[in-house]
Each structure stands twice: as C-alpha cells, then as structure tokens.
Amino acid sequence: MADLLQEIKKRKTFGVIAHPDAGKTTLTEKLLLFGGAIQEAGAVKSNKIKKGATSDFMEIERQRGISVATSVLAFEYKGHKINILDTPGHKDFAEDTYRTLTAVDSVIVVIDVAKGVEEQTEKLVQVCRMRKIPMLVFINKLDREGKDAFDLLDEVEQKLGLTVTPLSLPIGMGAQFQGIYNLWEKNIEFFLEEKKQKVGESVKIDDLNDAKVDELIGEKAAATLREEAELVETVYPPFNREEYMRGDLQPVFFGSALNNFGVRELLDAFIEIAPMPQPKEAEERTVEPVEKNFSGFVFKIHANMDPKHRDRLAFVKIVSGTFRRNENYLLVREGKKMKFSSPNAFFADKKEVVDESFPGDIVGLHDTGNFRIGDTLTAGEKLHFKGIPAFSPEHFRYINNDDPLKAKQLAKGIDQLMDEGVAQLFTLEMNGRKIIGTVGALQYEVIQYRLEHEYGAKCSYEPLSIHKACWVEADEKSEEFKEFARLKQRFLARDKFGQLVFLADSAFTIQMTQDKFPNVKLHFISEWRD
Ligand code: G4P
Asked: Is residue 483 located within the same domain as residue 363?
C-alpha cells in the first residue's frame, strides 16, 4: 500500500489563470510537453469560446466536450505528480473558475507583455488574494514588443495589489529579445526562435560581472542586464517562501510560452516552491491531508454529452486520506452511503479508472443526480467543507414553462442544472415565480438548449431589470426587518438553499436600503457566514 505522506508530498495541484488570449492554453501545453505527458505541441485543444460563438448552440456543446477533456490535466515531472485544473478565462464562465479556485493549492497567473493586466486577470487574482492562494506570475509573449519589464511589474503591483519579486529578467524584447537571465538559478538561457518545440540552451553564470556575459549577449545588453539585476536587488524584496505561501509575495517569471522559452525555469521553480496539498477548513474543524480517513468535496459537475444518458461526472478534490474504489463513503448533505465502481483519474490525454487516489488528486465520480456543487464526501464523519460561495449574478430573467404537460421535467431539469452550477435559481417569495441568474448571457442559451435536449422541457425567458442579488442577514423577528420585508416584498426571493435574497434594481436602491435599514445587512456573496 502506498505511503500516504509520500504520496501527498509528491503532489502539486494548481490552476493557470489569465485573461483570454494571454497564453494559458499554450503555457499548459508546454508544461505537459516538459512533463513528457504529450509528445508534440497542438495536442491540447483550447477550450475557450471563440469570439462570435455566443449564439451557436453546437459550438457551446462542442466546447463542453472539450472542457471535460481538459478539466484536469495530470503529469509527472522530476518525481512530482502535477495536477493542472482548468479555469475558463471567458467571463461568462467566471463562476466556474471561482469554484475551481477552491480546489487548487496554488496558481500561475499569465499576463501578456503587450496588454499588461487585463480585466479578467484582475477579477481572478482578487479571488485568489481573498483566499490567500500562493501565486506565481508568468509574463508571456516576450518575443513580441511589449511594455517595459519594470513598468509592467509596477502595473502588476498596482492593479493586482500584489507584492512582486522577479525571479527572472528578460534580456531585450521583441526583435531584440535574446533570452532570460534566471535570477533563481543564476544562468542565462538563450532564445533560439527556430527551436520552438525544444528547450533552449543555457549557460551558467555565477557572476554577472564576468566578461563572458558581454561575449554572450553583447556589451550594451550586458550593461543593461547588470543595471537591471542591481535594481531588482535594491527595489524588490528577496524571495521568501513563507511569504509566498501566505500569499504575501509573488515571484515573477518572464518568457514566451509559444517559443517554449522561460517555461522550464517556471516549472523548475514551481516544483521547488509551490505548496503540496494543504489542510482545508470544514465548519467543524480543520482537516489535514495526512489524516487516514478519506474526505473530499465536489467543485465541479459535468453533464454527459449524450442526452440519452443523464449521467454526470462530479469532480471531487481529495482533501485527506486515501480514496478507494468500491469503498462506502458518506455524502454528508444527504446522509447517504455511496460507493463508486469506476472512479476516474485524469491524465494529460485520457481518463482512466483508478483504485486509489490521494490528497491533491481529483477523481471524477459518475453520478445520476445525487451531487451538488460544494458537497462533502467522507469516510463517515459529518464534515462540511467551507468555501464554495455563490456570487451575485450579473443577469436575471424570469423563466417560463412553455409546455404545461412537461412542468415536472422542467422543474427537475432546472434543479439539476442548478446543482451543476450552470446558473442560480431564485424563487420570489410573493408569488413563487422562478428567476434564473447568470454570470454571462451565454448561459441562458445553454440552459434552454439542455432543458430541451436532456429533459424534454421547453422554456422561454422574460426580461427582468435587476442589478444585483444581495443575500440578507438580519434578525427576522425585529421590527426593522419586518418593515424592510413589507416595503421590499416584491423583490424578496429565496435561493436554492432557502437563504433570503433581496433582488435590488439599482446600486442606488442598495445604498438607500442600507441607509434606511442599517441592521439589515446585504451581502454580495452567499457565503457571508464565514
Ligand atoms: P488562452 O488560452 O489564454 O486564451 O491563450 P492561447 O494559449 O490560446 O494563446 C492565445 C494566442 O496567443 C494564440 O495565438 C497563441 O499562439 C499566442 N501565443 C501564446 N503564447 C505566445 C508567445 O509566447 N508569443 C507569441 N507571439 N504568441 C503567443 P492565436 O493566433 O490566437 O491562435 P493560434 O492560431 O496560434 O492557435
């Protein structure tokens, strides 16, 4: 039997976050190439929704197929088992990404050197900061003209609220790009454009003042490099692993994923410093990975592409102990014992049935409708892992049943799609009407399409002008709350878990409501009880 501690120490589970087009897919692919998990570039399909595809159902379906294949990519590198969890960059799927971030132990943030910090990066990094997830930054596309390295570091600090320390420095950029000085290993790696799929040469430099540097990159570039290396030392804090682990310091690397440049430096530093599977807070206690008993939680549910089989794949991150095939486990919310005869483990290009999995790993469990996002699965203990919040949706619409004979199918379909986390359902207190809230408009089409094809139910939507869903925290017996409920009764709803939600029609309304009812607290995240 495998030694649990050894298995845990081997594992690194992380996500790559980026604004679309910064190079997340390319970098992921190059990491797999280094790990020997794929043999050539082009093997990993991008699962991004291409521009202009927003109203094409088949495109959505095709993308769903790809995204299950790339949900988890695992490979071995220098004795480590690395699990990369896919995080969609498209903003309509941001909620999916937020949830995936509850299952990673660290992240790599990819930034395009020409575009700098973009909107999606800002949002995702904010979530990582809130959760104190250790982050490495990779500045990509150095083969192109872009912003000055130091200006970019300033931008990263200011816009993302990070404290950075460069662990590599670019030598030139764009047409003048010569390579990377690796401050971590103290060597220079040369950029050879024609060697796109291979690893560049590297020369070890113990002292930057060595005349060899002038020979290698030319006097001018050498002088600039020396100046910049000195600047790094004086301006930026030295790398400190504890600070990185606490989320207080973020090392930065430069490179070009497409040209396979700076990727090895990133990967080597990553396996050395990135955290192994970490303890996780449950409502009851903190759960340590080394505990003998298995525990884990569902962070993603993926419906089967085949409408004839309403089979779903629940992605479970293992938090503690050893997960075993055909063993009885407790689905805590339902108090139900379940066992799994064909749990899937994920590799770079395939999934396979596994007998055992360990903390840090993701197992895919076939499910016919029992699981819900955020569910805890244990060997028997009644634990509830914290930390899968719902954020206020951006779009709201009434959902109507278009076929009275299929009301049951519609209700079931809505229920299951909400369990999967496709969107959020709010039921108005006043009249029981159902409202679907989503992060992006795309989800409405996905829902309509899937309700019809998987559940045989037809629906239509009606517009509704809501600005934000605010989860309400108040003493429901107080006079103040009663007055609030009386005045706002048309806008009060329950979410899927029965929590009271105020659907505010404008930012102004929220402000007015808060001024008028100071003891009725409004939260934009469902998990305010934390
Ligand atoms: P994403 O997953 O973050 O959305 O980005 P992706 O890797 O798909 O990369 C977006 C585009 O940027 C791709 O070009 C990709 O080839 C390019 N790219 C990635 N890394 C680098 C780099 O280091 N240097 C340069 N110059 N380009 C890079 P595309 O034209 O959109 O797609 P494709 O036709 O090349 O697949």
From this structure: no
Average per-residue pLDDT for the chain: 87
- Neighbouring residues of 428: CB distance < 8 A, sequence distance ≥ 6: 434, 435, 490, 492, 493
Helix (H, G, I), strand (E, B) or coil at 273: helix
Is the CB of 141 inside a 6 Å radius of any atom of ligand 1? yes
Nearest to 299 by CA among 319, 284, 276, 275: 319
Each residue's pLDDT tens digit, 470-514 = 999 999 999 999 999 999 999 999 998 889 999 999 999 999 999
Based on the domain organization, do 358 and 495 belong to the same domain?
Answer: no
User: Which of 258, 261, 265 maximizes ligand 1 atoms within 8 Å of its Cβ, making it the mutation to test the pocket?
Assistant: 258
Q: Does residue 284 sit in helix, strand or coil? A: coil
**Does residue 293 sit within a domain?**
yes
Instruction: Name the residue type at position 441.
Output: A
242-298, pLDDT tens digit by residue?
999 999 999 999 999 998 888 888 999 999 999 999 999 999 999 999 999 999 999
Question: Are residues 350 and 456 located together in one domain of the fold?
Answer: no
Query: Measured from the CA of 19, which atom of ligand 1 is nearest?
Result: 3
In this structure, are 402 and 429 located in the same domain?
yes
Specify whether 461 is located in the same domain as 360: no
Q: What are phi and psi of 485, to 5 degrees?
A: -65, -35
- Give me the number of domains the chain comprises: 3
Q: Which mutation among 24, 26, 44, 177 tests ligand 1's pocket best, with the greatest number of atoms within 8 A of CB?
A: 26
Task: Decide: helix, strand or coil at residue 453.
Answer: helix
- 246 with 285, same domain: the answer is no
Provide the annotated binding site.
Answer: 86-90, 140-143
Instruction: Please name which of 462, 460, 463, 465 lies closest in space to residue 503, comparing C-alpha atoms.
Output: 465
Whether 124 and 269 map to the same domain: the answer is yes
Compute, in angstroms, the gap from residue 20 CA to the centroid of ligand 1.
9
Domain that holds residue 509: 395-523
30 and 98 fall within a common domain? yes
Q: Spell out the residues 6+ positions from residue 386 whose beta carbon is closer than 8 angstroms to its own.
A: 280, 281, 282, 283, 527, 530
- More confident of the two residues 527 and 421: 421
Residues in the chain: 530
pLDDT tens for residues 449-472? 889 988 899 999 999 999 999 999
- Residue 515: phi, psi to the nearest 5? -65, -40
Q: What 3-state DSSP class applies to 320?
A: strand
Question: Looking at 274, 292, 325, which one is the last position of a domain?
Answer: 274
